[in-house]
Amino acid sequence: MRCILIGNYGVGNIGDEALMAYFLRAFPDIDWIIVTASPKGEREVPRLPLGFRSFFRPWGKTLQAIARADAVVFGGGSLFTDSESVFACVLWWWHASVARLFRKPVFLAFQGVGPFRTSFAEWLARSAFRSAAFVSVRDSASFRRVQLWNMHATPVQTFDPVFMLFARKKPVPSPKKILTIIPRGRSNDAFFTEVSLVSRRPFDQLRIVLMQPSAQERAMAERIKAAAPIESVVVPVLSPEQLLDEISMSSQVITQRYHGALAALAVGIPVTIVPQVSGDKLWELREMQHDPQKFAELLRRGEDAMAKALPCAVHFLQ
């Protein structure tokens, strides 16, 4: 079986790269072609064009790959939300629409959906989801949203599969008492208030972990470092393994990155989760964090549903 795997891959975000690794590992019998912002190998193709510069990339290969595929899988992440920009919803709706033009079944797996600031963004998401052959979402807020959309597929509530990748890591206690802070490029005032409160406690070191080390995130790190009352170190992480190493030696974590929070919960490190807006994925994860056993149960439900939807699937949790 040949499938196209689409996600926010190739932009340097550790959480999205971990999601891609999950699909490749969980479903090894599928012949995957990955749509990525930074294609590097024979099994990777560029995103479809949306903007002037993207028209000069070899996206003809992407159309060929979709035409030859048995199915198109949107593999996890919060693809359909305009919390930061409506552009994301337009981009992924465009990819789903092209898949439909080629009459390929669309699988929307382990998705985070919303929140939406604009009716246009919600319309784009609704359009992409309505005719999908398979839909699973990673939290109850997303589940409530998609239930109202009169879709062809019955939605399945599951959980983010990266949790099980992270849960295999055992904590490595440090002789130092370490506070790990994980900002994002647009961290809000609520995040800095929480950082200010917690960093006053008796820690030996503050480590600022950058999960997508852009200029914006580096600026946020410098702002935190300048205000920190103790020794501070900025650590750009380049892989899920490096993220887990940083988390596992922490005494406490403050994060506004979803997969940073997920890593801390999986490893068992105390974590303060700061949402960006009410009802977003971080808000939902914060509400669920005291019942980690439920994560595995929900994830198994999602994997069982995927196994039935994709005949070549194998269970990652086995």
Short description, anyone?
The protein has helices spanning 14-26, 60-68, 87-101, 119-130, 140-147, 162-167, 189-198, 215-227, 240-248, 258-267, 281-288, 292-309, and strands spanning 2-6, 31-36, 44-46, 71-80, 106-113, 134-137, 156-157, 178-182, 205-210, 232-236, 252-255, 271-273.
Explain how this protein is built.
This protein has 318 residues and is an alpha/beta fold. The protein has two domains: 2-161 and 295-309, Rossmann fold (3-Layer(aba) Sandwich); 165-290, Rossmann fold (3-Layer(aba) Sandwich), CATH 3.40.50.2000. Helices cover 41% and strands 19% of the residues. It is built from twelve helices and twelve strands. Strand 6 (134-137), helix 5 and strand 7 (156-157) form a beta-alpha-beta unit. The two termini are 21 Å apart. Mean pLDDT is 92; it is low at 313-318.
Helix content: 40-55%
* Count of extended strands: 12
Radius of gyration: 19 Å
Number of domains: 2
What is the typical, i.e. mean, pLDDT?
92
Q: Please give the alpha-carbon distance between the first and last residues.
A: 21 Å
> What's the architecture of the largest domain, going by CATH?
3-Layer(aba) Sandwich
Low-confidence stretches: 313-318
Strand percent estimate? 15-25%
Order of helices and strands: EHEEHEHEHEHEHEHEHEHEHEHH
Name the strands of the widest sheet in spatial order.
Answer: 3-2-1-4-5-6-7
Instruction: Please report the first level of CATH classification, the CATH class of the largest domain.
Output: Alpha Beta
Number of helices: 12
Looking at the structure, the CATH topology of the largest domain is Rossmann fold
Instruction: Tell me the structural class.
Output: alpha/beta
| Overall morphology | globular
Largest sheet entry: 7 strands, parallel
